[in-house]
Design brief:
alpha/beta; 5 helices; globular; DUF4406; DUF4406 domain-containing protein
């Protein structure tokens, strides 16, 4: 699947103070969105800014906001409302008229699992019968 240049999305969510800066959630969301042909901008994939430690948050926000400005949509991870950075990104996205998506993990996972099941070949009849007898 090829990414569409008009299909750009920015991932926003809490990072500060979370284990691994919540990168696993950002990486998981990015992978799911890329499977759906989005061009993803994720702050979890940004390089470490070359600034003093006390300026790092501001430097990361500047990188993130400049990425957000190139997007058509924003994808909000759980807990974004408690994050000052993600809340600022949401506010900017809302004011710019970007499409706003909120993460619905269970719905995403269920949809992907059902799609994977639907694409698997059917079990031969004798295996299906054995599976039914064992349960």
């Amino acid at each position: 699947m090829h990414e569409s240049p008009n299909h750009r999305i920015y991932i926003a969510g809490p990072m500060t103070g979370l284990p691994d800066n919540n990168y696993p959630a950002f990486h998981d969301a990015a992978a799911r969105l890329r499977k759906r042909a989005w061009h993803v901008e994720s702050p979890a994939e940004n390089p470490v800014p070359h600034v003093d430690a006390h300026c790092a948050w501001t430097a990361y926000m500047r990188m993130g906001i400049s990425q957000l400005m190139t997007c058509h949509a924003i994808y909000l991870l759980p807990g974004w409302q408690q994050s000052p950075g993600a809340s600022a990104e949401y506010f900017i996205a809302q004011r710019l008229g970007l499409t706003i998506y909120e993460h619905a993990m269970q719905e995403d996972v269920m949809a992907e699992q059902l799609q994977a099941l639907a694409s698997k070949p059917a079990l031969p009849k004798d295996e299906l019968l054995r599976a039914q007898v064992q349960t």
